[in-house]
Design a protein that fits this description.
The complex is a heterodimer of chains A (247) and B (281).
Chain A (H helix, E strand, L loop, with lengths): L1 E3 L3 E5 L6 H9 L8 E4 L5 E4 L13 H5 L7 H10 L15 H13 L5 E5 L7 H18 L2 E5 L3 H7 L2 E5 L3 E5 L1 H6 L1 H7 L1 H11 L4 E3 L5 E3 L13 E6 L8
Parallel strand pairs in A: 2-6, 2-7, 4-5, 5-6
Antiparallel strand pairs in A: 1-11, 3-11, 7-8, 9-10
Helix pairs in contact in A: 3-4, 6-9, 8-9
Chain B lengths: L4 H25 L3 H21 L3 H22 L4 H22 L7 H6 L7 H30 L1 H6 L4 H23 L4 H13 L5 H26 L3 H17 L2 H14 L9
Helix pairs in contact in B: 1-6, 1-8, 1-9, 1-10, 2-3, 2-4, 2-8, 2-9, 3-4, 3-8, 6-8, 9-10, 9-11, 10-11
Classes of the chains: A alpha/beta (247), B mainly alpha (281).
Amino acid sequence: MTVDRGEIVTLIGPNGSGKSTTAKMALGVVAADEGVTKRKDKLHAKYVPQKLKLNHNLPLSVTRFLRLTDSADKVQIDAALRATETEHLAAAQMSNLSGGEFQRVMLARAILNSPEFLVLDEPVQGVDYNGEIMLYKLIEDIRDSLNCGILLISHDLHIVMSKTDRVICLNGHVCCSGTPAKVASSQEFKSLFGDRAASGLALYEHHHDHEHLPDGSIRTDKRTKTQNNVSSKNLVSNDVDEANENV
Amino acid sequence: MFDDFFSRALIGGFGVAVVAGPLGCFIIWRRLAYFGDTLSHSALLGVAIALLLELNITLSVFIVSVLVALMLLLLQKRASLSSDALLGLLAHSVLAIGLVVLAFMTWVRVDLMGFLFGDILAITTVDLALIWGGGAVVLAFLAKIWRALFAATVSYDLALAEGNKPDQVNLLFMVLMAAVIAVSMKIVGVLLITALLIIPAAAARRFATSPEQMAVIAIILGIVSVYIGLNGSLEFDTPAGPSIVVAALACFVLSVLPVNILRKRTGRSQKNLKDPDVGVS
């Protein structure tokens, strides 16, 4: 599997199918038992882990958290916070955030300083429905504006399928992969997630041309998707015998 | 002023407080209190070896502490026991070995109480140079790895994924801890070093809104504790180390007490502090 610039690759699969492990291998956090991981030299990668438990003894403001591994000035931090609609939290302590706010801030930290490669492990867990749509749209925008490669892990099949360039379905091995439409119609996908998951995808296609605002009104999405020059250079490639990777 | 044993003790104590503050914060953030105990208990073995081989005590304590830290890392990778069991095992075994070795050396007269609880009378100008020189080196290293060490404290995986080297900074952190224990042993004694590391940092937690701020406040509270503790020890003829720790505890209790006043103040300081990065880093 490869992740190119300007591409969203999504990993789906049941619990324990090796999604997070694959993502960690792509980042070099976990070494592959078999096969090799190749990364672009000096890859500017950012990671939103599935779980991040902060010790409550840490006095850590959102602003300081954004600067955890990168230095950034106020303008850059404000931009990242604005993109995730968390400007009002800039001075808040991380320990006082709600689950959804926390995820947004995690995403804000990840997009700070325009990374080349993003790994998002269930980035919208605990975010409310409107927020979820907003964050997925943001992820798509990030891809478009920063032209970065994104490796996404998600359970939310509907949204995943509509926003993704390529889907890789894992279940200890690569079950099936390809464009969302191709994966959704494949027999392996149906046997793994059931027919309803596949049929639900068609439903979603009608959803994303408008947006439900908190007050109940509807906003049509007039934004036209910008075409990007997708560089052919791979950011990350995991050349792994997937069957042996779920240890 | 270095002629006066009391000013020597004060200056030495301040030096220890300055390095103990930031490192103590990391001990709290990383939940390493017991690890600090293990290292400081191994200091007594360092003393025994120093007397046996006629080495410099501080140097010997430093080396033994580093070795114990490395042994712990190795055991954590190999053994099936959990970290706290390993720490308990190491801490008390090393303390016991140290005491046994000291008891065997009948030819040296050792003031055990001095090592266990600190001995301000024993501070020489050489010790002072060691504390401040060693302390400066420790702080210089800590400042260099501060960001990476903090990132690794928040999340090892995240730090590794984003280009930091958490294993290296973790190892260096352990070496720095060993150095602090070696230089502060004479002031507070083997049994109470962890207290001097942890209590000022714990008291600082309440006032701090950023990690850098917490480290600076911990230093200030440490200095205050040393000053009050040493003066109290002179006044009431109590052992120096425990007196300092009691003073630190008093700071901690005060930091917990007036709830409302402090809430207001931290709220205000949050606004005033435009850049929370100002401070140590």
